[in-house]
Amino acid sequence: MKLSLSVRIAEPPKRKDVTALPFESLAAEAKASGYAGLSMRASVVSVDSPPERVRAVRSLLDDFGLAASMVCGDIPLAANDAAATRALRNIAPYLDLAEALGSGLVRVMMHGEDDIPFARRAADEAAERRLTLVHINHWGTLFETIDQSLAALKAIGRKNFRVAFEPGNLLACRAGHGPGDLARLAPQLANVYFQNVRLDPASPIVFHSRRHGPAHLRYVPVDDPSAIDIRPLIDTLHEVGYAGWFTVHQPLFDGQEPAAAMRAAAAFFLPRMTA
Fold this sequence. Notes:
By secondary structure, this protein is of the alpha/beta class. The chain is built from eleven helices and eleven strands. The chain has a single domain, classed as Alpha-Beta Barrel (TIM Barrel). Strand 5 (132-136), helix 7 and strand 6 form a beta-alpha-beta unit. Helix 1 (23-33) runs parallel beside helix 2, helix 1 (23-33) packs parallel to helix 11 (258-269) and helix 9 packs parallel to helix 10. The longest helix has 14 residues, at 51-64.
């Protein structure tokens, strides 16, 4: 597997539109920590960024020898708000951004069955460019459970429309997220995302599941097995022969420095990327 870092790690708490340090510093630290790629979000570059910004970001990725593991092209996609599905209705700018950054994976969102025809057309357009659309297991979407994910993928019926396993969101939706669940999804995987959370009724952080309503969660360190133990899930990925991206999607804790968070996550995950 290849270790990727979501640029979310450098976004201040409760912000999705900016990073707390320049992208050059973020990329330099990611490379020094041992990551092979960065999962790009609109806090760094988006479909609305001027061409010179896109070129500058690509140049820095190339200079540091980092891949753009996946591209999340606008803030609504990251926030999963009411506008999150608009990418499916006009996918060309998102494909343009992915190509400009050298990425083969483009993140999209689906909120209802009425998004399925748009997903098919977007996937067909992406296929013409040999790109893959990826939907994360996420609250408030058609991918809240493994069964829902497989059903949605079957309805879309496109080989280049795939899924990113995300156990934290599955937990928030009270859905199975263990090794057996991951194994069922494995043939459709294009990415794996990980943020470590536990259910906590006292936490102000709320994920709004369509299936079970609001879920209060608390972020914990990535290596805390008392929340989501990622170790057996990584073992399962090795067992099924998954060789794609594994993306650390952990946010910053209050008072935590991005560089320290990057290094700590890399130290935990890098030794586990090989079987």
